[in-house]
Amino acid sequence: MDAMRKQLDVLMGANRNGDVTEVNRKYYDRDVCRLYLSGLCPHELFQLTKMDMGPCPKVHSLQLRKEYGEAKAKGVDNYDRELEDAIDRLIVECDRKIGRALKRLQEEDAKAAIAISVTEVTQSPEIIELSKQIKEKMNEADLHDLEGKTDLKIRALELVEEMRTKRADLQAVLLLEAFNKDRASLPQPIPAQQPAASLPPPDPRTQEMINEKLKKAEEFGEQGMVDEAQKALEEAEALKKLTPRQEPVVDSTKFTAADTDQKLRLCDICGAFLSIYDNDRRLADHFGGKLHLGYMLIRDKLAELQEEKNKVHKERVEERRSKERSRERESSRDRDRGDSRDRGRDVDRRSRDRDRHHDHREYDRNYDSRSRRDRSRSRERHRDYDHRSRRHDRY
């Protein structure tokens, strides 16, 4: 009931019956879901599955998400780290589950199971375009919900479901082609013998495996895992039809493991078991299931958050480098101005030195000229004195 009530709240609003008192909240209040504000709340992904977390105990509001987006753009708050940690824990747990399943199957046979890279096998231009359109329609539905256009929101969500179904069908066809190639590489089964009037009872080892499969089918049925229970029953029926073999027990074990477990494959997105003998309808149900879609959403969201974080980090590095280059240019200009002032002072100093040198040389020339004139006058005075002296001696 809580899950259904939550879904109705998402479609029509919490006050759809007019009996809810509106509370004036802010996006940073304690009772507001920060994961929802950042774009994805895990509580909404796995409803009515074995991974159901129940309804989220905190408030989901598109109006508060819009206010948070505006604040985030201004650099006020950022809850992306909390969302990244939450969904990273879910992915780590899923990958650990895949690893345990592979190890358990490989203990029986080294080729009992492999992890199919669904992301690589089921990628095509048409599927990529459909995924892009689904994301745009989801944003459009949120916008209609924010504007109170319930009819348009419901129509947008219906289109989302149609596109998801189409995408699942295309993915199933691509995966089925990969399974067909995988099946061709398996050992060919022994040609069927003519059916006898009555099948002989299975050997003890085969009967033990049949009982184990039936027990698993019963456990899966109690847990509500219908597909897994049906698959276990089919495997039990296949074991019942096996005729007793005369080989040693060891060889019989190898044969049964190769004939039954080797057909299992693991989805690398959600960890579900897939059979290479599944038809396209069963594979399409897997791709359209809430479990697969939920894990696909959180993996895509984690990649988006990491890409955004790397982009912000790169912008900060570029900004820091730009500031460093700016400081280096400013420092270089200061050094150039200092060198220019030094060169100007050197030029002035050399000019003054030349002027002083020129003044000294001019002084020396003037001094030499005066000295020569003084010596000339002195010689003339000396000659006049001698001449006067000789004349005085004659008289």
Q: What does the overall shape look like?
A: elongated
Which percent range describes the beta-strand content? Answer: under 5%
Query: How helical, in percent, are the residues?
Result: 55-70%
Spans of at least 5 consecutive residues with low confidence: 245-262
If helices are DSSP runs of H or I spanning 4 or more residues, what is the number of helices?
12
Mean pLDDT over the full residue set: 76
| Spatial gap, N to C terminus | 164 Å
Structural class: mainly alpha
Task: Provide a compact summary of the structure.
The protein has 395 residues and is mainly α. Helices cover 70% and strands 3% of the residues. It has helices at 2-12, 34-37, 62-73, 80-106, 118-121, 125-146, 150-184, 204-222, 226-240, 249-260, 280-288, 290-394, and strands at residues 113-116, 264-267, 273-275.
